[in-house]
């Protein structure tokens, strides 16, 4: 059952307009009603609440303390109604609306294929556009409204903190070699030993938390990054160099989990320690969650959970 106050929606609008324009006459003109009708409307609202809402003085009227309190709730109610209107419009348009999702290489290769496959199998046709890129660049597109969500690595120093984020999966980075590499049979190594290797391949880490964490360990242990390393975002290139040319690789536990699990790649142990890194789902705060988007996000979360189940720490 509606409350008494809910039956006075037009009176609430009349009251807030009077406060906004500071006079009964100006508000009546804007609302296209007579001044006596506007006065009766506001007084009726005061009767319902049992308090005075306006200081009636010349030349301007102003809200009382109770009036100010009511205005705050009117603004909140308007915001909720606007959300409801946007939701209804989104539902109307959802059949033809495209979900634009940006993702880093990890999510694009290990989470989204399963999520999209499951959506097609279980939920029929949902129009989805996937864009791969660096997390920082994708978040700029999210900020500009070009994307609906981004799956990417956590950002340093509170960057993009205006977004709502949820953790999807954590990955670890290890120095690894092929099981036949002589280094696989050695005991604990030093980071200096690793950095002195002529054959070292790692992901391009520019500006990432991984680069920062590795830099901390290099400083702590008094060594520097190998100047002759190969950097690549391609797991295929890393895999080839490790298996065919006996490279040491800085590997993601997700990218190479199968090889680590079956023993064909061995994790090197030593005096260094790198933390886990989180892949997050980023969305704009307050965005309308349409039914197709809700389905898509749930499938992404389910796929991330499945992905996390096999990760080697």
Describe the structure.
The protein has helices at residues 9-21, 24-31, 35-49, 65-93, 105-110, 112-123, 135-143, 191-195, 209-220, 235-245, 257-262, 291-308, and strands spanning 54-56, 61-63, 99-103, 128-132, 149-153, 163-171, 173-178, 200-202, 230-231, 248-252, 265-267, 277-284. The protein has 313 residues and is α/β, with parallel strands linked by helices. The protein folds into three domains: 5-93, Arc Repressor Mutant, subunit A, CATH 1.10.10; 99-164 and 279-308, D-Maltodextrin-Binding Protein, domain 2, CATH 3.40.190.10; 173-275, D-Maltodextrin-Binding Protein, domain 2, CATH 3.40.190. The strands form three sheets. A five-stranded mixed sheet has the order 4-3-5-12-6, sandwiched between helices. A five-stranded mixed sheet has the order 9-8-10-7-11. Strands 1-2 form a two-stranded antiparallel sheet. Helix 1 crosses helix 2 and helix 6 packs across helix 12 (291-308). The mean pLDDT is 87. Residues 67-94 form a coiled coil. Keywords: Coiled coil, DNA-binding, Transcription, Transcription regulation. It comes from Cupriavidus lacunae. Belongs to the LysR transcriptional regulatory family.
Overview features:
313 residues, alpha/beta, Arc Repressor Mutant, subunit A, D-Maltodextrin-Binding Protein, domain 2, 12 strands, HTH lysR-type domain-containing protein
